[in-house]
Amino acid sequence: MYLKAVEDASMTGAYNASAPEFVNNEIFTKKLASHLGKKIILPNIPKFIIRTMLGEMSVIALEGSRISADKIQNSGFKFAYKTLEEALSDVL
Fold it and tell me: CA dist 91 to 66, 70, 88, Å?
């Protein structure tokens, strides 16, 4: 993605360097454990504790960051993997 940005003069402005599929930490952790053949138990931490610990940054942990990869895809960039499942299956 960064190489394309350096080489492609038509790319101007800001681009999100993110995967095309939104995956939060819980989904990622569960899918990774599944691909590794492991069981995982994620503790359910109450939101007020996360808010107390992280303050304003708790919004990112609790709600995630839904950014779009549409602009980079529209520039012609092709992702090697469109989904987390594809990436984990190939890498693991």
Answer: 25, 24, 5
- Direct distance between the N- and C-terminal alpha carbons of the chain, in angstroms, rounded to an integer: 22
Alpha helices in the chain (DSSP H): 2-7, 25-35, 47-54, 58-63, 70-74, 84-91
- Is pTM beyond 0.85? Reply is no
CA angle in degrees (0–180, nearest 5) for 26-88-1:
95
Tokens of 47: 């939101």
- CA-CA distance, 36 to 88, in Å (whole number)? 9
pLDDT digits (tens, 9 = 90+) for 36-87: 999 988 888 999 999 999 999 998 888 877 889 999 999 999 999 999 999 9
